[in-house]
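dumping this here before i forget
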Amino acid sequence: MKQSKRIALISGAGRNIGAATAKELAGRGYHVIVNYRSDAGAAAEVVTAIEAHGGTAEAAQADVCVADQVDALVERVRADHGRIDLLICNANTVTPPFVPFSELDFDTFAAKINGELAGSFFLTQRTLAVMRRQQSGRIIYISSTASDTIGMALAHSVAKAALNTFSRHIAGIAAQYGVTVNAVAFGAVHTDATSNFSESFWKYTTDRSVVARRVQPEDAARAVALVADDGFGFTSGQVIRVDGGFEVLDQQLHPLADSFL
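structure:
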């Protein structure tokens, strides 16, 4: 049955930023497709939570790194709803290897980059074909400020830097179809993937945040919803940094900063 609501497809929407974004967008009037790879229970909980607050959603299983599964997912959404207004590529397809370069093997390094791009490539290619026919749409990639940092997250950083470049190319391709494309690059967000980070890490990041606390998935979701909003319709091809002011405050708090400020 076709919906009168706008349709949002979110990959990896069963947990963390994806789940919070699904709930946020449902609250703003979208019908949300909650994509998941293996945790059907988590996706069902997101759908139930959305419906409990008066929204509409449905769970949809697919491994977004597998082309045939993405084909089936996108075709199902198109057939059921007639359109896709918003695609959010969020799925964490491969857990980042947080190890020193000397301990990082190439296969693990390459797997992270390949997984990051495959999940976005297949979804973008198939969904953009739908948006091309309707001559409208929004695509948002969930990226990370790690793309600009160096340290223990080499594979993750390179993967996100590649995703940012990919997003800008897609923005150029999609413009002729009335589709805007942006990436939202988050600083440290408190999720399952980061929950085991050291307390010293969290103290360092929160001390350099304008909100002076750990950023939660709900904070990230509101930022994504703003980029998806019609008011952002004139913006495309951008990597939008959302880090609570960390980049500026980290420099300001540098031991030598007082010499110049």
